[in-house]
Amino acid sequence: MHLPDPATSRAVLIGVHDFEHLPPLKSVANNLNRLRDALTGPELWGLPKEHCTVLRQPQYGVQVVDAIAEAVDKAEDTLFVYYAGHGLTDQRSDDPSYQFCLSLPGSEHDAPHKALRYMEVREQLRRPRGALRKVVVLDCCFSGQAAVAMGASLLHDEVEIEGAYVLASSGANTRSWAPPDAELTAFTGELMSLVEGGVPDGPELLTMDLLYEKIRLATVRKGNQQPHSLATKTAGRIPLVRNRAYVPELPPAPPSPGQDHAPTARLSRFDLDRLIEHQKDRANSFPYEDLLHGERRPRFTEVYVRQQMSAQGMDGDHRAERASDPARHGDWSRAREREERRAEAGAPAADGKRDRRVSQSLKSVLASPEHLLVTGGPGMGKSSLISQLPRELPENAVPIRVTARHLAPHAAKHKPWQEAIAAAVEDDLLPAGLRRLPDRPTPDGQWVILIDALDEVSGVRDREDLVDWIDTVLRRQDLPFRMILTSRPPTPADRRRLIHAGMVHYTLEPFTADGLKRFAEGWFHDCPEPDQAERFLAQLRDGHLLDVAKVPLLATIAAIVFESSPDTPLPKQRFGLYEQFLTHLAEGRSSRRVGAGLRRLLDGLPHGERLADEIRARRLWLGQRLAVAASEGETDLLRHADAWVRELAKELEAPIPRPPTWRAMLFSLAEYTGLVTRDGGNNVRFWHLSFAEHLAAQVHEQDLPDEFDPKAAVWGSWLARVFDGAGQEEVARLVLVRHTHSHQDSTLLPWLQQQTDRHQTLVGELLLRGAKATDSVLDAFCDGLRRVLFVPEDERYDDMLTTAALLGDPKVSATLASAMADDSAPTTARVAAAQLLTERSGSTARTAVEYLWTAIDDPHTADADRVRGAAAVARTQHDSRERAAEALLETARDERVDIAQRRSAAEALASVGGRRLAQAQACLVDLLRSPGASGQKRVAVAEALVKLSPASFDEALAILEAQADDPATSAFDRIDLMRVIAGLDHGRRLHSVEMLDRLMTSPQIDAHIRAKAAAALADVAPDRVQLSVAVLRNLVLNSRLDIDDRIAAAERLAQVDVGRQAEMADELFQLAQSPHCGLSDRVQAAVKSAALAPGKRKRCVDLLAATALNPARALEDRLYAVTRLGDMDPQNTERVVPVLHEALRAPGLHPNRRAEAARQLGRLSDGHRARAIEILRRRVAAPGTPPGEALALAKTLAQLSPERSDDVEAVLLRAVESPFADPYERRDAAETLVSLVPSARPRVVATLLRHAMEEPTALYARWMVDAVVAIDPGQREKVARILRLRLANPGETVASRRRYAQTLAELGGAQERAEAVRILSACVTDATADTDARLDAADNLASIAPKSMGSMADYLLAIAADETCPAKYRVRAAARIGRLGRAHHEGARELLEAIAADERCDATHRDDAQAELRKLRDVPPPVHPA
């Protein structure tokens, strides 16, 4: 007897727990979850999740029938069908087969047509299909009088299915029991106790007959209804799951003491000690020990430096609303790779404004009990971390290390974790024959499963299977192990699955300057030559390699190269370092030793000596052959070695046989290259993948022409690999780098610098990898860096600063130092430059810290810059580090500072560690309490809290749930709140799933909200992905929806299910071609289609080109298409230039469109940028240019040419000081001018303060004071005085007073808030005031001090109940009452229902009342912690 084959079996689980006309059965939802987990859990059955269909709340019977029919068609081994809900009977039918019905959400007692007749299910199951066995489990009751519980049917007459087993919860005319407070229904509870707990002393597999008998005995013992069963043929012997309580019989004792012991059910103490000690010994072994010359061998524990780890939060940078590009099959997320590089470099965070990293020590991370996902870029020390962890774990933790590559085949077979891990362990660390680990290593111990290098599972399907297996294994509660997984940055889809399986994501940070020093001291601590560590660091410093060496692998390479020849200076860039190291590998001691062994293996073969000589002469070619294969994802490198040596033998006309030692000869042949090592299994791997990429680039570069010709197809192909994102980007970059070394007069880099912004960004990436650059190229790069520093809005900002952080060239450092010291430069630019310089060494870093303190202590510095500067100092080892931490703490607690900046300060404070971590947690909890914080801001704060520790989760959850309860919270925000709540507390996940499901399926919800809910549901509940996919696909295909809603749904579907990316790309392209598609939607659909299917980019480019270059279209439409076309096709931008020039000169074009044309032209090349600047200068200076257009063009001119601020300063100053300027334009001009010319701040602030005092319109006055505080936070007291003066004016209306009070409160501070509450309360209670203004004041008061709204209820009630009051105000008042809390919901509902039913009211206002009623209904029911 054996379990049904999971690969060819199917299951359909149906549950209905909520009814419109029947009593609810809340426990049914839990039934489905527990049963699904059991069937898909590898330790019980291991049914793939895609083979298990879960139908919750099916609205129509056809949904159930279709799902069963599909499963019948696909099942070959076993089909399992389960239903839980109300059972109904149709007594009016004489035919027994028609009587039994399964209830649906809309079913009623006497309306069988609203239920699903079981006959329809039975007919599907009886269809002659391939399933050998069919199991039906019914948990429902049969009652003809009152369907208050659940019942079954007349089994033998109604449910018999040929060749199947039917297990029912009760008899034909009896009821089943669903205790109201129980987690599961009575019958399913007994079933799950057997499935999950097992049957002690029972067989290895639990059959249906055994399950029936055990359930029957339990129900008899408890007095519950007994189950019934019906089996045809031998179906009773169908095994359903493994018996978890099964204990196999031990084999007999060995016949003699000399023989090996047979495997036992539990590892002996000797076995455990051997396992632990072996792994600790490996921690002492240096990963590249065989690569070192001489007798000295540093112990890895002496060299290893514990790196800091950055918490990445629940959703990191892949939240759907950020519209990041979906992941690609077979490639890593470019956005995530860039973020990893920023972390490696200590560069600014992705938004270019603040650092969002939260650093923690390894000790603090290991102190928490979570499963860990640890990622990092190439060479960041992931495998080193895994090797060292056995020395860091507590005594009761037993480490067991496997590689993801060896685990993947066993995971694909859905093996239980005990069997899969035991099978994947290498080096004979477990007793011979032990095929299954015990659940626990010792009675009070815990396994720590260390899985290394998920990214080295090369097959996309294999990697997805492994992630799926991890997800399935970790979903169970009370696991007897902890899992730690390492990887290069994973795809967003894999990351999402791992995080929602329960893993916490951390990124390894690079060495700090102090860490690099400790690495050098550890490496050379026993070196016979004195001062070697200092000499090594000096060579790094002289070669500008200090930043490069912060990557642990590169530090190791540099140390090995240095030690091989200490008197030879190290190369001055990364490329040369790799070149010397790979030469060292090929010529090293290990390679020579292997070569001698290879010659001995070949001696016995015909022509062996000749073959050995040729192999020695050509082994570099073999290394290149293996490198190309490895870089393309090949793992069977010995196959390529075999092919190579046979080709060589054929060329030499020296045929060779295949002796028994042939496999050993292939191992030696591959290792003779010096580039690979045995992978612990039956093959070899490169010492590091980056070595293979480097050599593969050498092979490909040899096929390139000597002259760079951008018009040649071969060059266009390699550039396309970089830009299109279709795979092999890293090798493509290295090919270009190697070309600059092979042809030092190449025009490649100068040509790139004359092209688009994307080409110029590529120059920085090539310089990072060691491209050979002339002084003119470096000068041009530095000019671009300085320009970008001044314009944070530039799309190149993040990439340029990342490059500057990693590139240690003296010219780059000098550019940063010049920008930092430039008093005329914007403060943001100076702080950014100083932040990067703090990562340098010596006096450069000290000078940067000194400037940062100047900025931090300046009261006029913007809060964002102050936080950024303090965070940079806190990350250094400077003496003022603690002072910087205090500055961060002060900012995080300062109520006058914006919530976003306070959150950033708290995150930076947490990175300091120690007692600062608890302080940061407390600050974040205080931020969650901040009155008036929007749902999105609270979500962001909660996600920051998730990164730190679960210590404050209970309080955070209460605050988030209160926000979700507020009817004023939009459905958009409620989705995010539910997602975060589920992430904070898995016990609340079911509640969040139900709410997201309701939002996703509600026809009254807008399509874009339903799409967002579907994506969130897939995040929160991976088991519901298929349901989310179905909803999203229906939205995409629904031709009645707006095109933009369908586009958004398609993009989200591609993010949820990467397997549908190609399908969605085709759907989007079809939408773009539709004649009903507007221009904006057509362009968006084409752009997103190209992003999803890079291989089909050309069709989208052609579509946009046809639109952009069609002179019959309006110029604004053509311009919109042109801006996207330039981004999509950077290789062919010249065809868009005429359209941009036409837009710059065309009369009557909207100023914003003209400015956009100038920006786009400036991105095409430096030459085009110069022409755009000249056109803008002339138009700005022209006397007839309207002021509004002059302002828009001046702002664009400042972005294109920040170094020439004189050209725009006069225009901006005129807009600020003109008495006729529009207030919005005045504010916009003021902020732009100060960011460009900091010295203008006092004059601008004085002008704005004067207008704030004189402006007659309260709204415009508020704009002025808001601008003042944004420009100069030190002016808060002056702004407060102006507001108090205006409030003291008796002539101010209630509408004006409430605006001033709101602004006063937003300045922060307890005194200002108390004043605002008093003023706003007086506005609300003033019965003589305008009703609209009173309600506005109530809204303001609720945002500032929600608790004070309780005393306003009577005043609001008086407005809502006053039938003489206009209906629109009554609706607003009633809605505001509902937002006071659940206690007021009923009263608000009655008021709104009265308005909605009052035919005297305008239809629009009645609709508004209905909308507010729906908001009240959408409020989630109260939830209690699980």
Automatic annotation (TrEMBL):
Cited Gene3D superfamilies: 3.40.50.1460, P-loop containing nucleotide triphosphate hydrolases
Disordered: annotated segments: 310-359
Coiled-coil blocks: none
Biased composition (Basic and acidic residues): 315-344
Domain Peptidase C14 caspase intervals: 10-194
NCBIfam families listed in its UniProt record: caspase_w_EACC1 (NF047832)
Name of the protein described by the UniProt record: Caspase family protein
Native source organism of the sequence: Streptomyces lonegramiae
Lineage, opening ranks: Bacteria, Bacillati, Actinomycetota, Actinomycetes, Kitasatosporales
